[in-house]
Specification:
The chain is mostly helical and about 150 residues long. It has helices at about 15-30, 35-50, 65-75, 75-85, 105-115; strands at about 125-130, 130.
Length: about 150
Amino acid sequence: MTAVANDLRTGRSLVSADLFDSIAEFTVIHFDYDQEKAERATDQALAFLATVGTATVKMVPSDDVDGALHSFILHTADYREFCEKYAGRFLEHNPRPGGGGRILEEVQATAHAIKNSGFMVLDVLWTVNGENAAQCDSDCGRDYRAA
C-alpha cells in the first residue's frame, strides 16, 4: 500500500475541539444525523463558511451540509467570531423563500470552490435531492479528523 500526501485542510481544523463537538452534537440532536454524518457535515459546513469570504461563485450548501451549517449559526457568539476571522464579516443567513430547492449546478460550483480554496471535499455529503453534486475527485479516503 502506498501512502499519498494530502495538503488539503479540513474545516474541523479551524475551530476548537470543544466547539466542533458541540456543533456536531447539536446536529445529531436537532437534525437527526448519526454521529459520523454529523461530524463530517460539520467539517464541511466550516470549510463552506471559510470559503465564502473569497469565493467568486454563489455559495450554496448541500442538503446534507445544511443541518450542520444551521447548527453552527445557532452557536451565535462562536459563529460571529468565526465569520469575522475567516470571511471578514458577519455572514447573514440568507434563505431563498419561495424559491424552491437548491440548484444542482450552484451546489456543484460551491463544492468546487471549497476544494479550490484548499479544503478537503467529502463528495458523499454534497447532494441535492439525494443526487451527488460534488464529483470533485474528493478525498473521502483520508481520515477527515486529521488536520
